[in-house]
Predict the 3D structure of the following.
Amino acid sequence: MDDSLFFQMLMASKQSNKAMAALGRLMHSDKSRIEGLGILARCGVEVSDEEASLPYRTVAVAFSLKGSENLSSRARNFGNTLKLARGFVEPGASSPLDRRFDKMVAAGTVKSLVEHHLLRLLPLVKEQEINYNMLLQDLKWWGKGNTVRNKWIEGYYTP
């Protein structure tokens, strides 16, 4: 699948409130997500494969929640994005977000990561930039070793 077509679709969808709403419902388990799945299918996402389409559905939902102006971002990874949302914390101190972040990066599967943690943290990063391309790639590689997890930890905890 050519991810550039997916990202072109996201940018085109932001012009339509109806399309953005449809993308925002992609994680619903009822028929309200059908229109959003149709949008993804038109750009080559294999929506019949729930596991393979989960990274695309997640990024589309994140994009719809934020109503971003563009896809490019100086943000590095989602750990870094959450760190910016957390704000400054004194060395040795902790934030309530730290526990939520630690539970999130402990998720063993991308499904667990997305459904139990990441989607619930998206409202906290509404004011932060998200690197959508990196998020898509990270979700595709989640659970295939610890590289992505460790990069998110570095992004979140490194001063």
About this structure: Residues 43 and 49 are 15 Å apart (CA to CA). The chain has a mean pLDDT of 90.
